[in-house]
Inverse folding.
């Protein structure tokens, strides 16, 4: 009798579990469908919530443990239009032993889609498919290019690339399937960049990489075709991805060498990828099974900074590779490569003293920019001392605001060049 009771109990539990499992699967499917219907809303939750009217209190950030509201006007005042802050500069990231990315010496192109209307395909780009500019972020003011699921997309303002350049951009993705690919970043031979480009990797000279995140992981593939039309390199590696977050992609060409980083982690370092004396250009390709890919804040810079020669021999070195949070003096982790390089030069030349000078663009009030530039210079000195061991008494700091531009403040790339930190040998 006892065995019969146990048998009945087990059968009842299995039936209940099956019913519960079926209900759970239905709920899971409905949740997935809801996510797929609200792709853009998902992105809003990542970088902010909703669009707001001008001058409404729309953004709350934690600063010193307290919430601080900003108006849309303040948020859109530019990278340098900030009110003076009483807080001390601080080093906000740890020293990275692997992130060695150094941006090119001069910014030649930027793209934030500011000139494009929401819903349009950007005027300075071309495609064989579609795509649209969407506004996402705390105030609905940050613009992104939402790429079509399958297609070729490229910036027409980027022409033949030199032997030394860096390319950076923000990427966000959601609900990508394990099937097909994510985002391909391709450097084809210049004559091969066209709307008939075969994104399945044609026989023309090119260097191509694929970024295919799946949740917090994923893969990246790379392929190289040389002048004989032969694929001389093909490989795939696992990547770490910040799920539900904006990821920064950094690509660095030095003659034949190709390096790519996702956030502050190096993914590829291929010594012989680019063919010497061959002209390459740039395109993006998508072949998505599901989900979406977004691009924003693209920056292309030319040249290879020669920190040692310019600072020690010429007595002056300037960089726009030290990046700060908007309207703030907090240094971004993506600045680690150039800071490490500068610190190495100073530590190898212990008798050298420098003045660190901050510069801004013209966005915002002149006095606010002046004070911001001073605080940013002080923050750089503090970080070099705290994180990289440069003696504090070897560094003086100052700021010039927007009074000493090196480029046109009427263009986005000109403003980016003017937002810089200068090191002058004393």
């Amino acid at each position: 009798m006892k065995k019969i009771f146990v048998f009945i109990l087990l059968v009842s539990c299995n039936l209940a579990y099956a019913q519960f499992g079926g209900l759970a699967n239905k709920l899971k499917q409905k949740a997935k469908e809801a996510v797929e219907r609200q792709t853009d809303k998902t992105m809003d939750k990542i970088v902010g919530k909703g669009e707001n009217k001008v001058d409404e209190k729309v953004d709350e950030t934690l600063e010193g443990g307290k919430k601080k509201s900003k108006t849309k006007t303040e948020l859109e005042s530019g990278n340098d239009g900030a009110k003076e802050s009483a807080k001390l500069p601080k080093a906000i990231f740890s020293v990275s032993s692997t992130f060695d990315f150094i941006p090119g010496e001069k910014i030649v192109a930027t793209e934030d889609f500011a000139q494009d209307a929401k819903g349009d395909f950007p005027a300075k780009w071309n495609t064989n498919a579609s795509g649209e500019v969407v506004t996402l972020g705390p105030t609905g003011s940050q613009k992104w290019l939402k790429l079509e699921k399958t297609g070729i997309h490229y910036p027409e303002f980027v022409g033949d690339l030199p032997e030394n350049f860096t390319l950076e951009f923000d990427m966000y993705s959601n609900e990508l399937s394990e099937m097909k690919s994510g985002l391909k970043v391709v450097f084809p031979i210049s004559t091969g960049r066209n709307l008939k480009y075969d994104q399945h990797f044609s026989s023309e000279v090119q260097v191509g990489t694929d970024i295919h995140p799946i949740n917090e992981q994923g893969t990246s593939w790379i392929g190289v075709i040389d002048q004989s039309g032969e694929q001389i390199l093909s490989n795939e590696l696992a990547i770490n991805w910040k799920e539900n977050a904006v990821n920064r992609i950094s690509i660095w060409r030095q003659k034949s060498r190709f390096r790519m980083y996702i956030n502050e982690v190096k993914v590829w370092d291929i010594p012989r990828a680019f063919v010497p004396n061959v002209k390459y250009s740039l395109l993006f390709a998508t072949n998505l099974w599901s989900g979406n890919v977004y691009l924003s804040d693209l920056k292309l810079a030319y040249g290879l900074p020669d920190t040692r020669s310019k600072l020690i021999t010429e007595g002056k070195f300037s960089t726009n590779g030290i990046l700060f949070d908007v309207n703030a003096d907090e240094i971004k982790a993506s600045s680690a490569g150039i800071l490490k390089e500068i610190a190495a030069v100073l530590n190898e030349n212990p008798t050298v003293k420098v003045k660190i000078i901050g510069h801004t663009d013209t966005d915002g009030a002149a006095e606010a920019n002046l004070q911001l530039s001073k605080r940013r210079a002080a923050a750089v000195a503090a970080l070099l001392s705290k994180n990289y061991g440069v003696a504090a008494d070897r560094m003086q700091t100052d700021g010039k605001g927007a009074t000493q531009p090196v480029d046109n403040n009427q263009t986005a790339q000109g403003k980016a060049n003017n937002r810089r930190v200068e090191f002058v040998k004393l």
